[in-house]
Design brief:
alpha+beta; two-stranded antiparallel ribbon; about 15% strand; globular
Amino acid sequence: MDYRQILDEKLVPLYGTARLPQGMEVYPGLRNVISFALPLPRIIIEGIRKHGPDKAYFHHYRTCNAYIDHVSFTLVLALEREGYAAVYVPASQSVSDDGLRGMLSHKAAAVLCGLGGIGQNDLLVTREYGCGVRLGTVMTDYPVEESGVIQNPCTNCGSCVKRCPSGALVGTEWSIDTPLCDIIDAEKCSRYMKKAFQKIGRGAVCGICMAACPVGNNRK
């Protein structure tokens, strides 16, 4: 089973594989992960940069998440058909009581799989698309090679921190040992989104710190 062929056919431009560290696995035996990223349209990100989040962004955000789930489930079906166990992490689902954490961090998996690094906005920063991506993750016992962690593309320029309207970003440079609270006040961010941008759709999204990132802005 060639997962790469499936991802290529689904027009996924960025993907990698890794083995989760001991204790990070969600399901026993499923320590191998396939991580992939889909870029949001450039025109949508430019719209956020100029005018802030709007209904077009909310729609594309939701559509991208749905497509990621479709691609992830396609991979799961293909792996299961070949006799491997697999399950995917939903593109946007909170499982914690505070509504801030999923079953497995897409960003952590993406870093391990060599897709990028974590920026000062606590988002994945890719070389190719900056922060303007949504992430998918499949956990499996299918044998994979380690793509390898890459150098963090974040330049610590502080653009995202300056543009954050909620003041939730601290400006700390990310490292593997950095506590989340030292980078972002996640509850403050969530509260602001719900108050300021609930009108653009059922749910709360912002994207201002994502659009502020200069990495990948010149992609063709």
